[in-house]
């Protein structure tokens, strides 16, 4: 297995799942600053460098290629739209070209985002829905999605494209909502606060969350069983910040003082986004298995350990 972005959140969980299954994992990384799971063979390179990427794919001779590396922050994409667009499209092109030339029999999973759909016309969102990306990051992922589809059609490659909705679990950056809430709870518990103060944006907007370990399992199954095409990776059920905090109260056993910060409330918030995983399930047999409480409890525990060791990401 060859994985780009194995030093990231979902990529790290995917690499761990592959290693646990006995797969040999080659991780293409940006260098020493990008951590990869123990047991993976790491190769440092610039993914936009086609010659270097070709050489890595040729040497790895992978049966499957998972492309997760990306500039993934929506907020950063607004600040630097040129970098989000150029990086995400260029690296996807480089990986696809390398597979086409050096490993045309490999199955490729190009990981995209549910952000590609934009505001939904109807729920749940299905793969036939129009792509109407509403931020530079989403535009870059839609472009990469279209590029991957073209490589499947024009070159006959076995390319699967995912449109992955929100996922959560241990190791995620606190720029994402579940990681932010669980970090604040972990910090409050360490300080002995009661109640624990938690600050958020809109408490009522509902999003489709999946445990990242279920997401990693979906990617492996897509590589093994799915025909080329686009697949939503999602739970099909939604939760609001209010729901998440109620679950945190229950699983951690602490009272929470919830404060809504107007500065964190997005203008023109889409109040509910929910996907359909019918195509994924019918093609692979995948179903989300881990309940909402599991990533919340595990992520609070992960934050507690990371804060105790001084290794918590900012």
Descriptive report:
The chain has 314 residues and is of the alpha/beta class. It has 2 domains: 2-164, NAD(P)-binding Rossmann-like Domain (Rossmann fold); 177-207 and 237-271 and 291-309, UDP-galactose 4-epimerase, domain 1, CATH 3.90.25. 44% of the residues lie in helices and 17% in strands. It has 10 helices and 13 strands. The protein has helices spanning 9-20, 50-60, 74-79, 81-102, 136-155, 177-191, 212-225, 241-253, 278-284, 293-309; strands at 2-4, 26-29, 41-44, 64-67, 107-113, 158-164, 167-168, 196-200, 206-208, 210-211, 229-233, 238-240, 256-260. The strands form 4 sheets. A 7-stranded parallel beta sheet has the order 3-2-1-4-5-6-11, with helices on both faces. It has a two-stranded parallel sheet with strand order 7-10. Strands 8-13 form a two-stranded parallel ribbon. The protein starts with a strand and ends in a 5-residue tail after the last helix.
The helix fraction, in percent, is 40-55%
CATH architecture type of the largest domain: 3-Layer(aba) Sandwich
Which structural class matches the secondary elements? alpha/beta
**What is the CATH top level name of the largest domain?**
Alpha Beta
Q: Going by CATH, what is the homologous superfamily of the largest domain? A: NAD(P)-binding Rossmann-like Domain
Provide the domain count: 2
Number of strands: 13
Instruction: Work out the helix count.
Output: 10
Apparent shape: globular
Task: Produce the secondary structure layout.
Elements: E1 2-4, H1 9-20, E2 26-29, E3 41-44, H2 50-60, E4 64-67, H3 74-79, H4 81-102, E5 107-113, H5 136-155, E6 158-164, E7 167-168, H6 177-191, E8 196-200, E9 206-208, E10 210-211, H7 212-225, E11 229-233, E12 238-240, H8 241-253, E13 256-260, H9 278-284, H10 293-309
